[in-house]
Design brief:
It contains four helices and no strands. Helix 1 packs antiparallel against helix 2, helix 1 crosses helix 3 and helix 3 runs antiparallel to helix 4. It is mainly α. The longest helix is centred in the middle third of the chain and has 23 residues.
């Protein structure tokens, strides 16, 4: 259960990062509210997962999911670069997250 909560919390990290960008410095109420809610839920999920998962592994997996998810949204929905070197680096982050789970 802790791993499932950790993955969902990583996805919520992606949501709050995108909402933060869309909030335009907290000047837009709807994205600011989405940011606040998803941030709290993401942190709460991370805290829950860390009761069973070592902090180094849990935090790295959480950040990795959030970073790759945010970059993927940037590429797929926001017109950010999808260059081969950038995609290769994202693949390395995914490999690292998978490795942390496998060798946990």
């Amino acid at each position: 259960m802790a791993w499932l909560v950790l993955v969902v919390s990583g996805i919520l990290e992606t949501a709050w990062a995108i909402a933060l960008d869309r909030s335009a410095g907290f000047s837009r109420p709807a994205p600011t509210a989405v940011f606040a809610v998803t941030l709290v839920l993401s942190m709460a999920g991370l805290a829950y997962a860390l009761r069973e998962i070592p902090v180094g592994t849990g935090y790295a997996v959480w950040v990795g999911i959030g970073a790759v998810g945010t970059a993927a949204v940037g590429i797929l929905a926001l017109g950010e670069s999808a260059s081969l070197p950038r995609l290769a680096c994202l693949f390395l982050v995914v490999a690292g997250v998978v490795g942390l789970k496998v060798f946990h």
